[in-house]
Amino acid sequence: MSAIMIDGSIVHYEALGRGRPIVFLHDWVGSWRYWITSMQVASTSFRAYALDLFGFGDTARESVKYSIEQQANLLNHFLTEMGIGKIAIVGHGLGALVGFHFIQQFPKSVDRIMAITCPQSAEGVNARMKTASPSELVDWLSNRSPEAVTALADASKADPQAIAASITNILTDNLPMREALVPSLFVYGQNDPAIMPPVEDSQNPYSLTHQIMLENVGHFPMIEDQLKFNRLMTDFMALDSGASPKELQMKEEWKRRVR
Questions:
Q1: At the fourth CATH level, which superfamily is domain 2-257?
Q2: The overall pTM is greater than 0.70
Q3: Between 38 and 175, where is the model more confident?
């Protein structure tokens, strides 16, 4: 296990591979652990990092640092302490929101972001996310397959206050992805009960954003269909820097799933 001290608090992370840095940020349920397979795939071309946010996994419980803004500050301090330059982000739910808050502050520090099941409005978040315990969220959101049970083994370590605080942020604050500052690929699971994808706008003026709905998966596409998810991630990361994710339409295997 790898850890560093940030503002007097222990922050746990793991790293694999060599190359350009890519940072994986977890959801409200679980920890860095469910990224293992995706990190292994990414590590063939990238230096893949995954860290536990405050209140999750093996990172310190610091209730004053549970806001999305403070979690974004954690990412900033982590990159500074580790001497990491411009990054790509793969963020899931809470992790995606943290990524977008970081981009708002440091747009030149991020090359692109893949945002999975990221709420784009308060109305898109099921109210149960705020009231359910970590174990209840696992039962509700995962398919309880052996792979999911193993991948989400750290869910019980989550501080319920950390989940509630960030959900409250969503309900009371403006969400940060109104206008894309970097290429942004939004990915949703067709069967996700927690996060409702926004209605797709064919007149979307932001050429740097694109939305894909993955069929036959729920809240954890990286667990429920690893091959499909990791292929999409690889294709997105292979685009030239600054290229629009809309170019993924050129890939025959995604054509029926991209609008």
A1: Alpha/Beta hydrolase fold, catalytic domain (3.40.50.1820)
A2: yes
A3: 38
